[in-house]
Amino acid sequence: MKVEGTYTLPASRQEVWELLNDPNVLAKATPGIKQLDPQGDDTFKAIIEVGVGPVKGAYVGQVSIADKVPPERMTLKIEGGGRPGTIKATGELRLEEQDGKTVVAYSGDAQVTGLIASVGHRLISGVAKQMVGEFFRALEKELERR
Amino acid sequence: MVISHALGARIKRREDPRLITGRAIYVDDLNFAGMVHAVLIRSPHAHAKVQSIETSAARRASGVVAVWTGEDVSRRCGPLPIGPRIKDMKAPKRFPLVIDGIVRHVGDPVAVVVAASLEAAHDAAELVEVDYEPLVSVQNPETALAIDALLIHPDLGTNVCFRMTFGGGGIDAAFASAEVVVKTRIVQQRLIPAAMETRGVVAQHKGGELTVWTSTQIPHVVKTTLAETVRVPEHEIRVIAPEVGGGFGSKLDVYAEEALVAALALALGRPVKWIESRRENFIATVHGRGQIDDVELAAKRDGTVTGLRVRAIADLGAYSQLLTPGVPTNTGLMCCGCYRIPNVHAEVIGVFTNRTPTDAYRGAGRPEATFLIERVMDVLAAELKMDPAEVRRKNFIPAGAFPFKTPTGATYDSGNYETALEKALDRVNYTALRDEQAKRRQQKRYMGIGIASYVEITGLASAANLPGGNWESATVRVEPTGKITVLTGTSPHGQGEETTFAQIVSDRLGVSIEDVAVIHGDTRAVPYGVGTFGSRTTPVGGAAVYVAAEKVRDKATRIAAHLLEASHDDVTMNGARFLVKGSPDRAIDFKEVARMAYKAFKLPPGMEPGLEFLHFFTPKERVFPFGSHVCVVEIDPETGEVSFKRYVAVDDCGNILNPLLVAGQIHGGIVQGLAQAVYEGVEYDSEGQLLTALFTDYVVPDATQVPPFELDHTVTPSPHNPLGAKGVGEAGTIGATPAVVNAILDALAPFGVKHLDMPITPRKIWAAMQSGL
Fold first, then answer.
1. Do A117 and B694 make contact, defined as CB atoms within 8 angstroms?
2. Are residues B772 and B654 in the same domain?
3. B105 touches A at CB < 8 Å
4. Which of B689, B697, B698 to probe by mutation at the A interface, max A CB count within 10 Å?
5. Would you put residue B575 in left (φ > 0), alpha (ψ -120 to 50) or beta?
6. Residue B588: CATH number of its domain
7. Which of A80, A144, B655, B699 is least enclosed by beta carbons within 10 angstroms?
8. Which residues of chain B does A118 touch, with a Cβ-Cβ cutoff of 8 Å?
9. Separation CA B83–CA B466 (nearest Å)
10. Is A113 on the interface with B (CB under 8 A)?
11. Which residues have C-beta within 8 Å of that of residue B409, sequence separation ≥ 6?
């Protein structure tokens, strides 16, 4: 399953970069996140609750940030498992400044197994897109608050 | 055989009242004091290495009595059976749980949790942590064949389970000299058998006996296999198939869970129950079909077929189950269909993939054979611009040519293929229908007429690894009060033999059907039998009942003659009464003869007491039912939707014991065959995740999605059994798929559409109408 798109945030590239590297912000902005414990080296233990149609459940896993080129790009790696199956995803974020705003281009690929794959497959792309949207809107709110 | 008042009568199924009022007892209805519940933990990956299985939290959980992994199984269980012995076949050993640390399909079981309640078992199962390292999986059977393909079972050194060729004549010369050659490539998609009752097993070890209740088609085979797998002497095992809610071949197997639950009951000393969830049923019970066929036909311009070349690649899935390789080999055997084709070469290749294993499913290799030959006959007709009916007539094996041996090695017992086709064509008024089709095309209305003529095998010879061959046992026991108990080795799950076997006995012994009980499915009650599959119930199991009843009749006549002080030859039976020829006042009731058989003080000299016979019936050969189905559809060009206008089936199953039951079998069969054509199809993603994992995604049709059926018959008795009957359980499925697909493609001919893969959905039709494929 692939997800890609762009989202424009009303802040400088440096500000957005800092936001994306703040575990507290990530914990607040990521939909369904129940817990995000830093393990050092840009690695976090995470518990995320996601519902895809009839398949709901908690995933326990690891989120790590790699290939960092501040403030231009980073790669997110997510691996987790739970009652609905397992998920393994990588996503790349590229930041570009345009007229004082920052365009975040994201592209991700995920492999899912279990119930979420077999039962939720027709809904999963929609859910992923929705979650990405929620994430960026939460970041936007965070920027407004600052 | 003379069809009497009892045989051939429309008698309602005696088993139905209990089935439709919820009084039947299935495996899940069994509950015993102290019973514990098993839940299996299955791989979510199509191919992965099991790095570790952490069970300590599950073991500590409330109510848990055991958690087993492959290690526990390898100490307690031997391997499960792996298919018939085909020459040079390579198949891996399989065990009740994965024991070598590699999972090979989604659903492959790695651990089992047993707890005091089902809920506790499910909760504890979530605490088992399995660490998988995903491996690249092999999904496409053609990819699996490639020289550098990743090996699913490295020990075998290949992904090919077997290669088998069928045929004769000079195939290369036939194609070299052909006036016309047509080719088609057919994907016969995987199907999910989807029996109404999922599988289930209860096992109990008590008083020196291991009793296993299982939803199976073959209780005796399960018993013999369990003796070897869980190492209990066979005479201490009792297997019971209680009510079985459908099988369609998917319960013609010896499954991991049967051995696992038995082993758990032995180890724990408590009754253990496992009931398959619907989701498990979709990933852990065998799938059907799964074949890619390249088919070529060589012919003369006048439509005479001179050669047939087939290359069938069968997707066996991850393991060979009880009969897995025996399914596609039926396709090789039966690929000539109803036609006299002098030169044939069929290669069948069975290939392992990282998918759920395939095995028998209603028709088991014969639907695939019929589909490929009936499709390519239509392709030939289109190429020659001949009527599809005419191409068939031109090539049918003539009625006078039976028994007929095909180049692939089948010997058809009896047949009259052209008569069956003509009857079906008359019924739809074929010529007028073709005129109407032409007229409608002018009005941009798209009607299609599809023909399928089939011949198939019933009373299948069973495989080398089954303890039984192509025989069946029956006991006819007359009780001292004249009531009759029949014990049959067949094991029904929808066949209705409690009715038809009682009819056979009623016909032979003059008693009423109500006075006959038919007992099956309990290995302690019933002498060794083979089971129910391959439409063998009537031609093999029913024939056994017939012969046993004849033996009873003969002995009863001798006792009656002795009591009446008449010569044996002078005594005749009229209903349930014995009469002396020419002396109508000298008579004795069957009931009185039964009583005297057990009182035994006035038997003919040297005769044993009692009135009971066990007969093991072996037919001389397999029998080959046939028929022609005609389907008429109309396609909505706006939506691609198919509406069924007519469906006519003319089936020949030899003598008909009960027209009502025959109709029921054909109805159900057509629904399943039609479903393959337009509704059902298993889909996996590229990683081997099953995408059609629920009934929301896997379309099993309901009554509103199928047309009314118009049934008719021709009657060509089989010479191979005393009933003259052929099986009819699979015929409908075999005829329907090609009839429907041929009808749809006939409707789409004006658009230049020559081929569509099944299931042919409105979306595919619509897209093809736009582009012309």
1. no
2. yes
3. no
4. B689
5. left
6. 3.30.365.10
7. A144
8. 106, 279, 689-694
9. 9
10. yes
11. B166, B333
Query: Is the CB of B685 less than 8 angstroms away from the CB of A115?
Result: no
Asked if B403 and B413 touch (Cβ cutoff 8 Å), the reply is yes
* B696 → chain A, closest CA residue: A119
Note whether residue B605 is domain-resident.
Answer: yes
Residue B112 inside a domain? The answer is: no
Q: Is A120 on the interface with B (CB under 8 A)?
A: no
Number of domains chain B contains: 2
Q: Among B566, B594, B617, give the residue marking a domain's end.
A: B617
Query: What chain A residue is nearest to B693 in terms of C-alpha separation?
Result: A118
| Same domain membership, residue B631 and residue B612 | no
**B126 interaction partners in chain A (CB closer than 8 Å):** 83
Same domain, B483 and B438: no
Residue with tokens 């914990």: A27
Please indicate whether, in this complex, the C-beta atoms of B691 and A117 are within 8 angstroms of each other: yes
> Are B672 and B755 members of one domain?
yes
Question: Does A113 contact B45 at a Cβ distance shorter than 8 Å?
Answer: yes
Which residues constitute the domain of residue B589?
16-22+471-617
DSSP-assigned states of every residue in B287-347? BEEEEEEEEEEEE-TTS-EEEEEEEEEEEEESS--SSTTHHHHHHHHHTTTTB--SEEEEE
Fold classification of A2-145 (topology level):
Alpha-D-Glucose-1,6-Bisphosphate; Chain A, domain 4 (3.30.530)
Same domain flag for B604 and B694:
no
Q: Does A52 touch chain B (CB under 8 A)?
A: no
Domain ranges within chain A, ordered by starting residue: 2-145
- Residues in contact with B653: Cβ distance below 8 Å, sequence separation at least 6, in sequence order: B625, B662, B713, B725, B726, B727, B728, B731
Taking the Cβ of residue B693 and every Cβ of chain A, the question of whether any pair is shorter than 8 Å is answered with yes
Convert the pLDDT of each residue in B101-144 to its tens digit.
999 999 999 999 999 999 999 999 999 999 999 999 999 999 99
d(CA B182, CA A90): 48
pTM of the model: 0.93
- A62–chain B Cβ distance below 8 A for any pair: no
pLDDT at B461: 58
Return d(Cα B210, Cα B129) in angstroms, integer: 32
**Shared domain check, B657 and B528:** no
Output the furthest CA–CA distance in chain B (Å, rounded). 87
Are both B604 and B704 inside the same structural domain?
A: no
Are B450 and B536 part of one and the same domain? no
**In a domain? residue B309:** no
Predicted confidence (pLDDT) at residue B501 exceeds the cutoff of 50: yes
Q: What is the mean pLDDT of chain A?
A: 88
Determine which of A118, A119, A122 to mutate to test the interface with B (most B C-beta atoms within 10 Å): A118
A54, pLDDT greater than 80: no
Chain B CB within 8 Å of residue A112 CB:
yes
pLDDT digits (tens, 9 = 90+) for B197-207: 999 999 999 99
Whether residue A104 contacts residue A7, with contact meaning beta carbons closer than 8 Å, is answered with: yes
HSE-up of residue B106 (Cα within 13 Å, Cβ side): 30
Q: Say if the Cβ atoms of A112 and B689 lie within 8 Å.
A: yes
Cβ within 8 Å, pair A115-B279: yes
| Tens-place pLDDT, residues B292-334 | 999 999 999 999 999 999 999 999 999 999 999 999 999 999 9
Minimal CA separation from A113 to chain B, in Å: 6
What ipTM, to 2 d.p.? 0.76
Q: Which of B151-155, B403-407, B580-584 has the lowest mean pLDDT?
A: B580-584
